[in-house]
Amino acid sequence: MSKFWSPLVNDLVPYVPGEQPKMANLVKLNTNENPFGPSPKVVDAIRAELNDNLRLYPDPEGEALKDAIARYHGLNQDQVFLGNGSDEVLAHIFYGLFQHGQPVLFPDITYSFYPVYCGLYGIEGKTIPLTESFEINPDDYAQPNGGVIFPNPNAPTGRFLELSKVEAIVAANPDRVVVIDEAYVDFGGESAITLVDKYPNLLVSQTLSKARSLAGLRVGFAVGHPDLIEALNRVKNSFNSYPLDRLALAGAVAAFEDDSWFKATCEGVIGERDWVTSKLEALGFEVLPSKANFVFTRHPDHSGESLARGLRDQGVIVRHFNKARIDDFLRITTGTADQNKRLIEVLTGLV
Ligand code: PMP
């Protein structure tokens, strides 16, 4: 703290991202990145964009990308909002779409950026405990609120809430915006994007960081009714009028044009995730059913902390949360076949 700090900054409790270790040769399974890499067509498109035009500002509307997303999902361009990763999209949602003065509802446990945004904007957040089996119960979200948000699949549990239950939450809150954060939906879940034309209060956010393997490019988007998108654009243009740089726009458009790469890598991750699940279960781990690119797992005889430490000592990094109710668990990102074999080999020696 310094005398130059605003009191607003003194009170902030920022999000701490997962570690990005500098050492090579680690098996890095801690931040839910995609092990397969982006489409080569994305890399080509970014290379082609490395030219003299970099002296020019990018398109402030990001029109080519909005168009690619709209066409991909059968929507209109005015139903699409772009941001620097879905984290930025979510920040604008908290500012522009949630009613201040009533609590925003989100699960406990869930993505730990939500309470951070509440703190940043001085919004009250109310956490709703997950059920015994770490599921979201739709009935819990039919209570007065300033908005609702949850990831589907949820993080870090990986559990997917079926679409009919998502729809029940949206329908129960006709005067509030319900946000479905679909960062991990492409690994076996079902998107609520098909419902946006039916519900003007539904906003779905997605990212290119996971299934499209572009975490380093920072591209996220939200889709919903044009009125919701307009509010988000007003917030964005009050911060920064350029949603994405030229390289990110070019790469992201190319990502939507290579559907076969996208589908093949998703299938690859799903196959590997299911292999890891079966091996963990054979070692006595309990594994929550996952529709994400990670598994959430605990062992009856070993603490999460000791397993995370034991893995790290042998060069395998996974995520352990020091948080009540889940401190027994490890969140393990699905890696390549070789990385997953190494993970299981090390765990076999530890349990
Ligand atoms: N939502 C959830 C649930 C996440 O786990 C993440 C990744 N940390 C994000 C959103 C943000 O992803 P990005 O900013 O890379 O799009």
UniProtKB/TrEMBL annotation:
Annotated InterPro entries:
Aminotrans_II_pyridoxalP_BS, Aminotransferase_I/II_large, HisP_aminotrans, HistidinolP_aminotransfase, PyrdxlP-dep_Trfase, PyrdxlP-dep_Trfase_major, PyrdxlP-dep_Trfase_small
* Source organism: Marinobacter confluentis
Q: How does it assemble?
A: Homodimer.
| BP term (GO), one | L-histidine biosynthetic process
Q: Which residues carry this modification: N6-(pyridoxal phosphate)lysine?
A: K210
Sorted alphabetically, which PROSITE patterns does this protein's record hold? AA_TRANSFER_CLASS_2
Q: Which reaction does it catalyse?
A: L-histidinol phosphate + 2-oxoglutarate = 3-(imidazol-4-yl)-2-oxopropyl phosphate + L-glutamate
Task: Note whether Amino-acid biosynthesis occurs among the keywords.
Answer: yes
The name under which this protein is listed is: Histidinol-phosphate aminotransferase
What highest taxon heads this organism's lineage?
Bacteria
* Gene3D superfamilies listed in its UniProt record: Aspartate Aminotransferase, domain 1 (3.90.1150.10), Type I PLP-dependent aspartate aminotransferase-like (Major domain) (3.40.640.10)
* Pfam (any one): Aminotran_1_2
- Hey, which pathway is this one from? Amino-acid biosynthesis; L-histidine biosynthesis; L-histidine from 5-phospho-alpha-D-ribose 1-diphosphate: step 7/9
Q: Which family does it belong to?
A: Belongs to the class-II pyridoxal-phosphate-dependent aminotransferase family. Histidinol-phosphate aminotransferase subfamily.
Matching entries from PANTHER family are given as:
HISTIDINOL-PHOSPHATE AMINOTRANSFERASE, HISTIDINOL-PHOSPHATE AMINOTRANSFERASE 2
Q: Supply the alphabetized keyword list.
A: Amino-acid biosynthesis, Aminotransferase, Histidine biosynthesis, Pyridoxal phosphate, Transferase
Q: What is its EC number?
A: 2.6.1.9
The protein's required cofactor(s) are namely: pyridoxal 5'-phosphate
Gene Ontology molecular function = histidinol-phosphate transaminase activity; pyridoxal phosphate binding
